[in-house]
Write a structure and sequence with these properties.
- It is a single chain.
- A 9-stranded mixed β-sheet has the order 3-1-2-4-9-8-7-6-5, with no helix packed on it.
- By secondary structure, it is an alpha+beta fold.
- The radius of gyration is 20 Å and the shape is globular.
- Helix 4 (about 230-240) packs antiparallel against helix 5 (about 250-265).
- It is about 25% helix and about 35% strand.
- It contains 6 helices and 17 strands.
- The protein starts with 9 loop residues before the first strand and ends with a helix.
């Protein structure tokens, strides 16, 4: 859409501009950290408004058996409805989404959270929408060390938060996001960005860093690291990316980007204990990668 909008709150996340209509009192503090006063082209719109009910079309994704029952419907006119329901079947949050995933309208919010829950849900929708713009979101920690962007990814409960906080305490690394890695390719180079959505970590800042290495973290009885090949790295990233569960072009783009990242960014597998020696082992491997790249 790329139109200029003035006198409206605009968030800039990953160099994507999001204009917010009628949401001034519903954007939480985390989102306000990403406000920009600069006039810019707009990539996405988020607003609150009434929309006409639409029960046409088909269900693409969703189940009442989910811990949080969530459903995505594709309507006959091309737009989508993303509906989060209570376990009694009534709607709790509802978004109308344009066919190109650039306009999001919150038309129902029964959460009683003054917009906080809706904004968090929009974070998930944003993670899907950016797939149409050569960007993706991985589940992991973004940290910066000596100007290098290091993404530490792992399944929940593996220890990525513990490990990266040791980097912060031991090496003065800067944690840009404690739970989600927004990755975007700009002018042929991959960057990671801070986002206002950071899971339960509470760690997020508005910052950009080039991606130098992606780390797969595993628990083990001793500390060791190895270089992953392109194939296994790509397959691993497919397990960590925020990709649509429903088939289609967006899902295909997600998997294509996993292959691209796996081919273009060095990937290391760190098997480790939750101790400072693990930091030393990974640091040595990352510095070796940097030195070899400079040859």
């Amino acid at each position: 859409m790329k139109n200029k909008v003035l006198d409206k709150p605009v968030m800039v996340i990953g160099e994507f501009s999001i204009v917010c209509f009628d949401l001034q009192e519903q954007i939480p503090y985390s989102g306000m950290l990403f406000y920009s006063l600069t006039k810019c082209n707009i990539d996405f719109q988020l607003n609150v408004a009434y929309v006409e009910p639409d029960n046409s079309g088909k269900l693409l994704f969703g189940s009442s058996d989910f811990y949080i029952p969530t459903f995505l419907y594709q309507r006959l006119q091309g737009h989508y409805d993303w509906i989060v329901k209570k376990h009694d079947g009534t709607a709790e949050l509802s978004f109308r989404i344009s066919p190109d995933w650039t306009k999001f309208t919150l038309y129902e919010d029964e959460t009683g959270t003054q917009g906080e829950r809706a904004f968090r849900e929009f974070g998930s929708l944003f993670s899907y929408a950016v797939l149409n713009h050569h960007a993706c979101v991985l589940h992991g920690v973004v940290m910066e060390y000596e100007g290098m962007g290091i993404l530490v990814t792992a399944a929940s409960g593996t220890g990525k938060t513990t490990h990266t906080r040791m980097w912060r305490d031991r090496e003065s690394a800067l944690i840009i996001n404690g739970d989600r890695c927004l990755c975007r390719k700009v002018d042929g180079k991959w960057y990671a960005y801070g986002m206002p959505w950071a899971g339960s970590s509470g760690e997020y800042i508005n910052r950009k860093v080039p991606i130098n290495v992606i780390v797969s973290l595993k628990q083990d009885s001793y500390n060791h690291v190895r270089r992953m090949n392109v194939f296994e790295g790509s397959i691993y990233l497919m397990q960590r990316i925020f990709a649509p569960m429903w088939p289609g072009e967006m899902q295909n783009r997600a998997f294509d980007m996993c292959e691209e990242l796996g081919a273009e960014i060095p990937m290391l597998e760190l098997s480790c204990l939750p101790d400072f020696e693990a930091v030393d082992v990974l640091k040595a491997a990352i510095l070796e990668l940097r030195d070899n790249a400079g040859e």
